[in-house]
Amino acid sequence: MNRNYARRYANEFNIFRLIYQSLWCLFIAIPIFWLFYKFEVRGRENLPKGKKFICAANHVSFLDPFLVSVAVIKPIAYMAKKELFENDGPIVRFNMDWLGAFAVNREKLEVSTIKTVKELYKTNWLLGIFPQGGIRRNRTIEKINKGFAVIAKAAKWDIVPISITGCEEYNWIPFKSKVIVQIGEPISCELSQEEIIETWGKKVAQMSGYKYVEPETKNNETTEQKEYADA
Predict the structure, then answer these.
(1) What is the 3-state secondary structure (H, E, C) of the chain?
(2) Domain 10-229 adopts which CATH fold?
(3) What is the pLDDT of residues 121-164, one digit of tens each?
């Protein structure tokens, strides 16, 4: 991987990537949703109007970014694990790039990630995050990474919790399963990191009907937030 897919600039979130993401949603994602699933979006009235925010959803399938984008009806730049850009071949890398995704290190939140988020300030794109990291189909909200809370506080963007249910198992029988994307009320970025993480986990668990598991250790705010704010 010669290109740095973690560091993106405002001019990369341009009309061409917007069109590419829109075409994927309109002509690939939506037909799949309506043909193989009964698709329903709830809670669009909870989306903030006239301000930036972070879309934070649970992660149960590879369809999730498209489900969130279709539900929110806005261009969204998703944080994706760097391995997708490094190891999954040129076709996957091309699509991830043109869909507006950028690479992140799941082990450690890096300054380049915050700089990319700050570039989004200058665009009409939102930020999409899956706080649990990888795909989890155990119907449990647990092991929530604190990075999304650090980003929210550094960027000063509220977080919109989103639950996705029905894609825990892929289905290729028309109309057999129902997929529900539910949008909750925003979580203030003024809360502490610990409060943001707990509130997101409980809201998504409540909306999805999943079990919420309390973290084993509490997350304490440190100088990390200031470091990213100054990036």
Answers:
(1) CCCCCCCCCHHHCCHHHHHHHHHHHHHHHHHHHHHHEEEEEECHHHCCCCCCEEEEECCCCCCHHHHHHHHHCCCEEEEEEHHHHHHCHHHHHHHHHHCCCEEECCCCCCHHHHHHHHHHCCCCCEEEECCCCCCCCCCEECCCCCHHHHHHHHHCCEEEEEEEECCCCCCCCCCCEEEEEEECCCECCCCCHHHHHHHHHHHHHHHHCCEECCCCCCCCCCCHHHHHHCC
(2) Glycerol-3-phosphate (1)-acyltransferase (3.40.1130)
(3) 899 999 999 999 888 899 999 999 999 999 999 999 999 999 99
